[in-house]
Amino acid sequence: MDRMTTQGRDALAAYREMLALEPRRVARNWAAIEVRAGDETSGDDAADGILAVVPTPARGRNVIGVAAAVVAVLAAAVAVITVGPHLINERVPSASGAAASYEAIEVDEAQAGVIDPERPAPARTDSGGATRVAPEPMPAPASQVLIDQPAAAAVLGRAPTELPAKTSSKPKPPKTEPVVDPELDAAKRLVAEAKLLGRARAALRDGDSGAALAATDEHSRRFGAGVLAEEIAFVRLSALCLDGRAAQARAAALSFARAYPGSPLAARAARTCASDDTPE
Amino acid sequence: MDDEHTPGREERLSDLAALYREQHDYVARVLRHLGLDAALVDDALQEVFLVVHRRLADFDASRSLRNWLYGIARRVASDYRRGTRKGNRPLLLVADHSSSIQGRDEGRRMESARLVEQYLATLDAGKRRVFLLAEVEGMTAPEIAQVEGLNVNTVYARLRAARIGFERTIAAQSAPKRAPWTA
Questions:
Q1: CA distance B126 to chain A (A)
Q2: Amino acid A2: pLDDT
Q3: Would you call A21 and B24 a contact, using CB atoms and an 8 Å cutoff?
C-alpha cells in the first residue's frame, strides 16, 4: 500500500481535529444520554424531576425535560457571563444537573485554552436525593490532549515493555504475565480499561506524569494487550516525554509505530519529543 | 438480594460514562464518515450510546471495541438516513465543528482540514468511507473489509484510488505559487 506523504498526513490529522465535537456538545449529549439511559434502566426518572433530556425529537419524549435542559444550559451560560470562570469551576449547584456541570467545566477550560476537560468528578446528588452518575468531564481525543499541552504535544509511542517486539497490528502482552482478572467479564474489562485510560489522560493533562505512568503500568499489569492498549501506549509515551525522559519517549514512539503502523495516532507519536527543545 | 455481579442503575451509568468519555469523538467521527449530516450527529451519537448501554453485557472482548461501535453506528446512521429516526433536530448547537482548530489559532491547519473536506466531497460514498476508515481511523484493510462487508481486494482498490487522488490534491495545494514571469 502506498505511503502517505507528510503533508497528506498532516492534512488528515487537521481534518480529524476539525471533526472533534465541541466540549459543550459533548457535555450536552452526555446529559441526554444519562437521562435517557436512566429512563430505560429504571423507567421512573421522568418523575424525579431531575433535569434534562436533550431529546430525540422524533420520539417526542420528555418535553418537560427539554425545557429543563434549556433552563439548565442557559443558567450555566448566564453564570459564566456574570460570575466568571473561577466560581463556575467550583461546580454548579447540583440542581442544574449534568449539563450545567459540564458547561461550567468546559467553559472554564476553554477560557484557559484547554479544550480537553478531564478532571475527577465525584458522583453527585440531585435535588431529589438520587445519586447521579458522575460524568467526569469528558476527555478530548488524545490528539487534543497532546496539542493542548505543548510539553507533551510531541509525544508518541509507548513503553518498550508494552510493545510487541515485532511488527504487528496488535500489541502482544508484556513479558510479565498480565494479571487479567478472570472474574471480569468482557464488558467489565472494557469499562475498567476505559476508566484507567481516563485516569491516565487526566493525569497527563494535569501535568502529573508520574500518575499517568502509574495508570498505564496498571493497565499493562491488569490487562496486558487490552482493547485499549493502543490508546494507553500513546498516553504512556506522552507521559514519558512530559516526565523529561525524551529518549525513552522517542524509543516508545518508534515502538508505537511498529506496533500500530496504521494508527491515527502514529503521526503525533512520531513527533513526540522529537524536537531538540524537548526535555531530555 | 441483588447478586454482586448484577450491575445496578448507577453502576451501569457509570460504566457507560467511562465508555462515552473515551469513545464519543470516535463515534461522532464515524457517524460523519457514514455520511450523516452534521446536524444529526448529536442525536445519532446519543442513540449509539444508548444501544451500547443496552448491549454492553453482550460485548465480546475478542472483538475490537471500535469495530463493535462502528457496527452500532452504522445501523443507527442507516436508520437516520432512511428517515426512520429523522426529527426536527435539536436543541443542540451545531455548526461549530471547526472550533477546536480555530480556537488554537491554527489557520493553516484549518485550511488543510478544509482541503480534505473538499476532496472528500469528490468521492463516492463507498470510496470515501474506506479512505476515512483507513486514513483517519487507522483501520487496516481487512478490518475495513469486515466492518463494511467488502472483499479485501475491493478495499485495497478503493483505498489506492482515493489516496492517489488525495495526494494529487495535496500536492497541487502545496506547490509553490510561482510568479508568472518565472520559468
A1: 18
A2: 59
A3: yes
Of B61, B103, B135, the CB nearest to A189: B61
- The residue written with cell numbers 487526566 in the block is A202
Determine, for residues A37 and B22 on separate chains, whether the beta-carbon distance falls below 8 Å.
Answer: no
Look at A60-64, A169-173, A188-192, A237-241 and tell me which has the smallest mean pLDDT.
A60-64
Min Cα separation B181/chain A (Å): 27
Q: Where are the domains of chain B?
A: 9-82, 104-173
| Predicted TM-score (pTM) of this structure | 0.55
Q: In Å, how far from its chain's centre is CA A141?
A: 6
Q: According to the model, what pLDDT value does residue A84 have?
A: 37
Which value does ipTM take for this structure?
Answer: 0.79
Comparing CA positions, the residue from A251, A249, A269 lying closest to residue A260 is A269
CATH number 1.10.1740.10 is the correct assignment for the domain at B9-82: yes
Q: What is the pLDDT of residue B152?
A: 94
Q: Which of A24, A25, A189 is best to mutate for the B interface (most B CBs within 10 A)?
A: A25
* Nearest residue to A239 (alpha-carbon basis) of A215, A263, A219: A215
- Per CATH, which fold does B104-173 belong to? Arc Repressor Mutant, subunit A (1.10.10)
Q: How high is the pLDDT of residue A145?
A: 35
- Tell me if B9-82 shares its fold with B104-173: no
Chain B residues with CB under 8 Å of A4 CB are 135, 163, 167
Assign residue A51 a region (left: φ > 0; alpha: ψ between -120 and 50; beta: otherwise). Answer: left
Residue B81 touches chain A, beta carbons under 8 Å: no
| H-run or E-run covering A132 | strand A131-132
- Quote the pLDDT of residue B73: 95
